[in-house]
Write a structure and sequence with these properties.
Layout lengths: L18 H25 L2 H23 L2
Helix pairs in contact: 1-2
Length: about 70
């Protein structure tokens, strides 16, 4: 009986994102949304709130990647 191969077959379907990547990106979106909403409520500036939310989401990705682990 042949041993099973540990390398994936080229025709095997693989997920687009790993579970780890999906959780990190989902949490980054949550952090960015909270930061944007709080900034929007405190300043009343929509453009500033969007920029704050995008910045918080972008900066939280590497932090969350290290915190959550792989």
């Amino acid at each position: 009986m042949p041993e099973p191969s540990l390398t994936p077959r080229p025709d095997a379907s693989r997920p687009l994102l790993t579970v780890h990547a999906a959780i990190v990106l989902l949490m980054a979106v949550l952090v960015g949304t909270v930061a944007g909403v709080l900034t929007g409520h405190s300043t009343g500036n929509t453009a500033g709130a969007i920029l704050a939310g995008l910045g918080a989401a972008g900066l939280s990705v590497p932090v969350l990647h290290n915190l959550i682990g792989s």
